[in-house]
Amino acid sequence: MDLPVRRWPLVGREKELRSIASVWAEPWYSAVVICGSAGVGKTRLAEECLECVAREGTRVGRATASKAASAVPLGAVAHLLPSGVDLSDPVKGFAAVTSKLAGPGQRESVLLVDDLHLLDETSAVLLRQLMDARVVRIITTIRTGELLGNAVDALVRGGNTFSVELHEFSRDEVGQVLETVLGSRVGQRTLNTLFTASGGNALFLRELVHGAVASGMLDNRGEIWELTGGRLSSTWQLAELVKQRLATAAPQGRPVLELLALCGTLPLADAEAAATPQVVGDLEDAGLIRTLSEGRRTTVALAHPLYGEVLRDSLPTVRGRMLLKAQAERTENRGLRRRDDALHIANWRLSTTGTADPALLLQGAVLARYSCDYQQAVTLLRALPHHTARSLLLLGASLFENGEPEDADEVLLQAEALALSDKERLQAVFIRSMNLSWTCGNAADALMLNDAARTRLTGPEEQRMLRVNEGCLRLMMGEPARGLTLLDDLDEDPLQAPNLGIWLMASLLRPPVLAAVGQSRKAVDQARRAYHLRRRLNDPVPLVLFNNVAYLISLISALNHDGDIAEARELSQRAWDELSSSRDRPLPWILLPFQQASTEWLTGHIGEARRWYAESAAQCRAFQNPQMMRRVLSGLAATAALQGDVKVAEDIRREALSYPESLPPEREEHLGQAWILAAHGRLDQARKVLADGARSAREDGWASVEAQLLTDIARLGGAAEVVHRLAELAEHCEGALPPVRARLAAALADDSPDELLAVADELQDLGMDLLAGEAAVTASAALSRAGDDRRAAAAAGMAATCASRCQGARTPLLQAAAPTAVSLTEREREVALLAADGMSSKGIAATLHLSTRTVNNHLQHVYTKLGISSRQELPGQLHSRR
């Protein structure tokens, strides 16, 4: 597969480019020096600067210094010298070169000199003379840390030289580069992997992407690029670049580099035990390692992740084991003073001998789970020669969290059989039930498991925890009233609860359900409390499931229902920062983009919502988790339909229907179907789909979900049908959204421009741009009909501003933004959309419950208002006005 873009874009260097352009406009500057480490993008920026100069008509040239060329005087610039000049006498020859280049008709030229630190001294002297004579200005690159000869140093010193220091790309800049190169978004897990592997180095990133695309490991699945698993492929060019870089180390430093490649970060004392302090210092000076200080502790690591990959590939197995064994002995001899020492020693011993002390393996596994490295925890626990109920509980929990549900259930059954106390039996039941409901999507079987445990675990605290566990399962089964009742007594301090894991699970699940049933303020308060309580658990707790990110997601969900979009977005960024630094964990990677999609759907920023639904779908596929797919794909279909990609939306919806039904409340499933129908102009059918969904939500108690579906009915021409129910929900539901939704429906039903403009202002304040735009454009149409052209124009301007932030959203109400469309009545627009979609007059009549004659009359009115003569012209006219 070829990349969409052959030449990599200049992204993330806009500030530097502007600075250079500003300086270059000043005639007294004769040189721009771009500094930075190898591969950071110095040459690419210099080329962009040279192209900008060339576009202005300036004569340009290029020279590349190299070690080979430096052995020959003037070797790097010989091809740029004028012919016929005798250089046997440098003094006269250089003067002749200057005279020719500065002669009549000659203009000042600009020369790009790449890798100036490798330039020979003779070329440097000549260039200095040409610069002083105002014959040549130079743009040059220098690798940071390289020693410069006297002549080269003189070339770039002084007040007429401007220097720019380039650094590695940030994570966001890497994302911008990848999106431009690949032509579409990159998944967050893939972005993390490529950013970590490249270290933000532009050259390394390019080679990693080329290698991954060539091997088929990086693929576009749906609407987003994702790595498909396995070890990240690079290219032979990248491997050679890294080997050349590592070859600059002295032989005495090789053991330190190899040890860091095997162990990662090490105390400075351990690095100095593998070599002398002088050698370690030389490695740091050469940029091959870096030291980190945290309080009184100083550690050492390789300067780049790819150094470790290359070193491990070339390291003989026996030598690697020898190095790890020595490091394990060093760590043991000084005592396990740091919390993660046990984890490291267990890994090193396991790698060198295939076994380790059981207590060390168990302690290491607890630490691995705490750091979210579930695969490592599984590896350590499977190495135990004998198991207890506790070790099997840890293994089962780690397998569950690692996305291996069948193995998890088998191990947890063994744990329950070996359990020596009701506490251990309760833990086995709890983790098994979570595994069945979360990963396998089988909450009913999990509930049966919980009920069966009640006959065996009869103690009062065990019975209470099983009741709480049932409450969690009922919530996941879509039974909010019953589930919340079972969780009524969860106000105690979790540290005093008989089972911390069950309490934390309940505190995680309860807020989103409370918000969905209309208690959003209570939900936000409880979610915030649960998040802060979870953060208090700083020490490894063996069987606590889910980390801080899961609790942030719960809070984001509650905030969305409450209408606090700004904080929801802020917390989403915090959650990504935490998740990006952790290992793979299926559910947060799926749920976090899903919640972000929900946030952006509320705002009406449809492009962003589409991006996050696509991200969530990609993670469902990556983790082979079908439980959320129907819901996620339905949301993706809705956003595609709103952007006018109806065929794409229909294909996505067909795929969504191939997955099992989602657990209630299935808001997205109704939205996907309804907005596809609306895109085809079948507004009656779209409203019916939404009404069915709203009715189901009402029967199950999902008040907030019902309100959103009813609001979309109002937007699609059914405001009068839903206005009274939305008013009732506004009375009983908490948060900012229910009242403003009710006022929007009432204003649409009354066609009141004053009320529509007032509610548009409220919606704008909440950040809900699409609804605000629809309200404003409807007000503009009403004002225009009333002859108030001034206010109509102002309302239309407001609508256009809001719509411009909605990333191509197309809705029936927004069509009224075009002047000719304003005159179409609601029924005329509905008939016109169906006709434009290819439906016959007879079919339209049957769909809208009208007579064929009435349909044809409506069409004639439409033709007259749009200035066309046939239905064949309708698609172009209507779509041009969207």
Spell out the blueprint of helices and strands:
Layout: H1 14-24, E1 31-36, H2 42-55, E2 59-64, H3 67-70, H4 90-101, E3 109-114, H5 121-132, E4 136-143, H6 150-155, E5 161-165, H7 171-182, H8 188-198, H9 202-214, E6 218-220, E7 225-227, H10 236-246, H11 254-263, E8 266-267, H12 268-274, H13 277-285, E9 289-294, E10 297-302, H14 305-314, H15 317-333, H16 341-353, H17 358-370, H18 374-382, H19 389-401, H20 405-418, H21 422-439, H22 443-454, H23 460-476, H24 480-486, H25 500-516, H26 520-536, H27 548-562, H28 565-580, H29 586-603, H30 606-622, H31 629-642, H32 646-657, H33 667-679, H34 683-700, H35 703-732, H36 737-750, H37 753-766, H38 769-785, H39 789-804, H40 819-822, H41 826-836, H42 841-848, H43 852-866, H44 874-880
Parallel strand pairs: 1-4, 1-5, 2-3, 3-4
Antiparallel strand pairs: 6-7, 8-10, 9-10
Helix pairs in contact: 7-8, 8-9, 10-14, 11-14, 11-15, 15-16, 16-17, 17-18, 18-19, 19-20, 19-21, 20-21, 21-22, 21-23, 22-23, 23-24, 23-25, 25-26, 25-27, 26-27, 27-28, 27-29, 28-29, 29-30, 30-31, 31-32, 31-33, 32-33, 33-34, 33-35, 34-35, 35-36, 36-37, 37-38, 38-39, 41-43, 42-43
Number of beta strands? 10
Mean pLDDT: 86
Structural class, judged by helices and strands? mainly alpha
Query: Describe the biggest sheet?
Result: 5 strands, parallel
Helix percentage: 55-70%
